[in-house]
Amino acid sequence: MIFLCGHHNTGKTTLAKWLFDFGFPYIETGDIVRNLYKITLPNYEFSEWATKIGLKYPNYFNECILKEIIRLEKTLPQSKNIIVVGNRQKSGITFLINNHKTSYRNLIIYLVASEDKLYQRQLQRQDRIMKNSTLELFKNEYLAFDKEMGIESIKDIANYIIDSNINIEQVKEKISFILKQNGYII
After folding, report:
1. Among residues 22, 11, 20, 26, which one has the least CA distance to residue 169?
2. SS3 of residue 85 by DSSP
3. Counting C-beta atoms within 10 Å of the first and last residue's C-beta, which end of the chain has fewer, N or C?
4. What 8-state DSSP symbol labels residue 126?
5. Measured between alpha carbons, how far is 67 from 84 in angstroms, rounded to an integer?
6. Which comes out higher in pLDDT, residue 160 or 132?
7. What count of Cα atoms within 13 Å lies in the side-chain half-sphere of residue 92?
8. Contact indicator for 36, 64 with CB cutoff of 8 Å
9. What is the pLDDT of residues 102-143, one digit of tens each?
10. CA-CA distance, 20 to 12, in Å (whole number)?
């Protein structure tokens, strides 16, 4: 598995979509969790629901993500490896690595960018528009959520840390180099 991690708007999904064209299927962990939320239709706000589930069943979301990885592998047996996008916790990545054996080397790529750059990218997003957005609101909602989840501790186990403040083509070159260095053909 290849994990693309980092705060909101560091370019994880953009890179996953680009790698998909080279035969790397991907899953979005956030989509899996949000779909579970929609299915259960709880009487709680999303973050309250996720917190309650996480406290009662610590690996519930990780198990659901693992099932999706296995399902995708069975559907696409010729794929090179699966890109896992959006993990927010080191424990989730560790769980997936320990509970899913693959013939490929697991890679953890952590993307970093300045808060200002992340906010500017947020303003350009069409899929998650923040009404009346300010940099402070973005920091207090999105980035605070990431930090609360422990996202920055993923740097401790990352194989590579890439500065994504640069233009996307330069980031793609770095990812391509990393994957080639680890035996992948792009």
Report:
1. 11
2. strand
3. C
4. S
5. 13
6. 160
7. 26
8. yes
9. 777 899 999 999 999 999 998 888 776 666 788 998 899 889
10. 12
| Nearest in space to 163 (alpha carbons), one of 3, 2, 6 | 6
Alpha helix (H) residue ranges in 11-134? 12-20, 29-40, 46-56, 60-75, 90-99, 115-124
Residue that has been written with the tokens 């993990």 in this structure: 87
**Average pLDDT score over residue span 38-54:** 86
Taking a C-beta distance cutoff of 8 angstroms, is the pair 135, 115 a contact? Answer: yes
Q: Which domains does the chain have, with CATH numbers?
A: 2-28+80-180 (3.40.50.300)
Contacts for 79 with CB less than 8 Å, ≥ 6 apart: 23, 24, 25, 72, 73
What does the alpha-carbon distance between residue 77 and residue 41 come to, in Å, rounded to a whole number?
34
| CB-based contact 72:82 (threshold 8 Å) | yes
pLDDT (tens digit per residue) in 13-32: 999 999 999 989 999 999 99
What's the token pair of residue 52? 């309650």
Q: What is the DSSP letter of 55?
A: H
C-alpha span between 58 and 56 (Å, rounded): 6
